[in-house]
Design a protein that fits this description.
Low-confidence stretches: 1-9
Number of helices: 10
Number of strands: 14
Largest sheet: 7 strands, mixed
Strand order of the largest sheet: 3-4-5-9-8-7-6
Structural class: alpha+beta
Bound molecules: biotin
Mean pLDDT: 92
Shape: elongated
Radius of gyration: 22 Å
């Protein structure tokens, strides 16, 4: 049977309707009776919902004659606040927001196995067993960063997974550039960089039937509001958050809504093939490896050469010293210090 974790959103809740109204009228007032009318409840019942929202971290101005006005939003993941700000909503989309989970990718896989309709997204404030690529752990404290997985059932061949991850990474770069006014880059195949440090990582996992992908989980860890001093060990030098670079904390739930909207749209473009129209432009804009001398570690073997581009499947083309070009579908890339 389909398990509904706490936080599953299906019908708009009263809190969702109230937030939607307040956000739509921001910075103006919305009267209690107007909210009551929308919900079909009394002003007293509205007041009780406002109390619940206050407990979740919202701050409102309230005046008897004018109603309510939104002054501050919670910085932790909030289901109705994300949902009320979603501008893209494919048919059947559902959202799960949990405080803690082992891994959002694993939760998404469990939900897929239980038959949940796609697309859906799982957002967590904290992961107890967050996973990165190549069997690594992904540091997943409740520190203002995002842990999210979006699940799909695409009808595409497994060979297209590489291009899918790159396409998603490029879309995220453009979204972050616009949203946070930063200059991100994509380091093949799945690292989002900011100022040469890692601001995010993608872990795409698929279950494959014969020659088709059965279902696919797109997992993203994005450092949004963490502070450098709080990272353990060497992470403080290799990782960075959007807030550190942009100089101020970001509106977490607004960013998550924008990001989910972009991921859902990018998926549609990938599934219907229209992504090919803009892939190359975005790649030229955000690829950080172009023409660089790199070392690529793949299955315990080191390959050194100059990056010569991508093939149609998203494999990296590497030219060695004698001028031979090899293709790599996976690997860990280090940019050489002497690179031009
Ligand atoms: C990497 O760069 O190695 C990929 C990191 C991916 C981390 C995210 S956090 C949300 C989702 N759940 C996981 O367990 N991993 C991904």
């Amino acid at each position: 049977m389909l398990r509904r974790p706490r936080g599953f959103f299906s019908m708009p809740t009263p809190e969702h309707v109230i937030l939607h109204e307040l956000l739509a009228h921001e910075p103006n007032w919305v009267s209690g009776s107007e909210l009551g009318k929308k919900l079909g409840v009394s002003r007293v019942a509205v007041w009780l919902h406002m109390k619940k929202l206050r407990e979740a971290g919202f701050v409102f101005a309230a005046q008897r004659a004018r109603g309510y006005r939104l002054l501050a939003r919670p910085s932790r993941p909030h289901l109705s606040l994300i949902d009320a700000q979603l501008k893209v909503r494919p048919r059947g989309f559902s959202l799960v927001v949990v405080d803690e989970v082992d891994s959002t990718n694993d939760e998404a896989a469990r939900q897929l196995a239980a038959g949940r309709a796609t697309p859906f997204a799982v957002v967590a404030r904290r992961q107890t067993a967050g996973r990165g690529r190549l069997g690594r752990a992904w540091h997943s404290e409740a520190n203002g960063n995002l842990y999210v997985s979006v699940a799909f059932r695409p009808r595409v061949a497994p060979e297209r997974m590489g291009a899918f991850t790159l396409w998603m990474g490029l879309n995220l770069c453009e979204l972050l550039a616009n949203f946070a006014k930063v200059t991100p880059g994509l380091k093949w195949p799945n690292d989002l960089l900011l100022d040469g440090r890692k601001v995010g990582g993608i872990l795409t996992e698929a279950r494959v039937d014969a020659d088709q992908i059965r279902d696919l989980v797109f997992g993203l860890g994005l450092n949004i509001n963490s502070v450098a001093e709080a990272w353990p060990g060497s992470l403080g030098r290799s990782a960075v958050s959007l807030a550190e670079v942009s100089g101020a904390p970001l509106d977490f739930n607004r960013l998550v809504a924008a990001l989910l909207g972009r991921v859902l749209l990018a998926y549609e473009n990938f599934a219907d093939g229209t992504y090919t129209k803009t892939f190359a432009d975005l790649w030229h804009r955000f690829d950080v490896l172009r023409g660089k001398r790199i070392t690529l570690l793949e299955g315990g073997r080191r390959h050194t050469g100059t990056v010569a581009g991508l093939d149609d499947e998203g494999a990296l083309l590497l030219r060695d010293a004698p001028g031979r070009t090899a293709r790599f579908h996976a690997g860990e890339v280090t940019i050489e210090k002497s690179a031009s």
